[in-house]
Amino acid sequence: MTDTQIYERIVEILHKEVVYATGCTEPIALAYAAAVARKHLGCTPDKIEAFVSPNLMKNGMAVKVPGTGLPGMDVAAAVGVTGGDPNGGLDVLHHLSAEAVEKAKNLLAKKRVLVDIADTELPLYAEAKLSRGNHWSRVVIQGSHTNIIRIETDEKIFLSKEDSGSVTKDPNEDFLHSLNLKILYNFATAVPLNRIEFMEEAGLVNDALSRAGLQKEYGLCLGKSMQDDLQNGLSIDNLHDRIVMETTAASDARMGGAPLPAMTNAGSGDQGITATVPVNVTARYVNASREKHIRALTLSHITAIYIHSFYPKLSALCATATAAMGAAVGMTLLFDGGYTELEATIANMTAEHIGMICDGAGDGCSLKIATAVDAAYRAVFLSRRGIRVNGTEGLVSNTADESIRNIGTLATKGLKVADKEVLQIMISKNK
């Protein structure tokens, strides 16, 4: 492939992975399946049955569904039926009305909604089956948050991709694995600006979430609490604290059920926030040009997507860690760092921050994001001074791409048992 062909393919991937999503994407995947099933049933169901993979259940048990103030997969399924947009994808709940929420609460109160763990080894699986009388509809999502592989009713099969051997594999995976950080750096710095200007939208959308989290009490209120201390003279305004404050505020708003979309990265709103907001804050701090800001956002997001391609969409590894690695290289670019500094930034992040466990989505995600972007700041701080962790230490290798593959191996193979144990603990304590 020529450079132009490679760059066009990367642009396509960014268009696919950096998209609007209202609410945490795991319960939203189920809401989307339910909305599509409702469309094909053609009427309000008497009963909603849903089955999700263990990873989806883990990430949907505690997080609030936007517009409802309530947590849970059952809530997501119910509002998907009563108010979801079947054409909305990850933005399925973008026009959720108060009336739809009340109808969903009524279904829940009458115990018409059942959600259970599916018998599957797949990290990402969501199935919604709706019934009314003798009629029913069923929708299955598998592999990625909006990848519908089956739509059927008691009368007809509308879609079936279950016989395809590639239904659970990202079609872009092999291409992403053929790349390296140097190609991504060259792409972000050389591709014509008009091909990546759409990335500016990610900055605007995720900044709006950040402002919401600073203005109103959502979730854990971590970002707003930091702002309160700043305004009360208990802390000093500086780049590090502002990165943590503004990024966590966006997560507070998203996980706390704010009715605003996030721009995602690798299927996750929190990963999108983590890959975006630190770059925005740094761009303002260094007074970067619009072009430099867009190129830094582009490098951040495509690096995060590249790293995440080496491990499952959902795993025991908190993926804000690798999203923050994307933010770190974007920040490095804003400080006029070259490829050598990018290599050092990845090495420093790998040494400090990889291994944080994902124990499900919820208000506490903003604490993990705080840790992730704190590490990103420190990695950039060191790389700007020509300091990097040596490739003989731990998961760090001599090149960034080797380190990234090491992270993928850890998440894919090394943390399998941890993932099962985390879910078991969560289910046991909530009985």
UniProtKB/TrEMBL annotation:
Gene Ontology biological process terms from the UniProt entry: L-cysteine catabolic process to pyruvate
Domain of life: Bacteria
Segments crossing the lipid bilayer: none
Domain (Serine dehydratase-like alpha subunit): residue spans on this chain: 134-423
Gene Ontology terms, MF aspect: L-cysteine desulfhydrase activity
Pfam families on file: SDH_alpha
InterPro entries, alphabetized: Ser_deHydtase-like_asu, UPF0597
Family annotation (PANTHER family): UPF0597 PROTEIN YHAM
UniProt family annotation: Belongs to the UPF0597 family.
Protein name: UPF0597 protein HMPREF0080_01603
Organismal lineage: Bacteria, Bacillati, Bacillota, Negativicutes, Veillonellales
